[in-house]
Amino acid sequence: MKNIETFGAIIKKLREERKLPLRVVAKEVDIDTSTLGKIEKNERKPSKDLIKRFSTYFNTSEKDLIIASISDTVAYKLLEAEHASEILR
């Protein structure tokens, strides 16, 4: 089974591979440094527009970033669900 990374983990990995500090990436995608930190820790969800800006900045697939973001949403909803195992069946 393929291990799927969270949206935040993907963004952090892209940033770290390029050896960029939070403040540089935040400035380039026009958000606060603290907001970027929260996104990387999966404490905040990105908007569709922000996903597009990340995709452009990192020259990566917008589709893959959208899938990661929506997958996070679904996974967190399942974690909160009372009957998660039945929902997955």
What percent strand?
A: under 5%
Order of helices and strands: HHHHHH
What is the approximate shape? elongated
C-alpha termini separation: 17 Å
Q: What proportion of the residues is helical, as a percent range?
A: 55-70%
- Major β-sheet, in short? none
What is the count of DSSP helices, taking H or I runs of 4+ residues?
A: 6
Alpha-carbon Rg, integer: 14 Å
Low-confidence stretches: none
Write down how many β-strands occur, each being a DSSP E stretch of 2 or more residues. Answer: 0
Structural category is: mainly alpha
What's the pLDDT, averaged over the residues?
90
Secondary structure: elements and pairs:
Blueprint: H1 7-17, H2 22-29, H3 33-40, H4 48-58, H5 62-80, H6 84-88
Structure description:
The chain has 89 residues and is an all-alpha fold. 70% of the residues lie in helices and 0% in strands. The chain is built from six helices and no strands. The two termini are 17 Å apart. The model has no long low-confidence stretch (mean pLDDT 90).
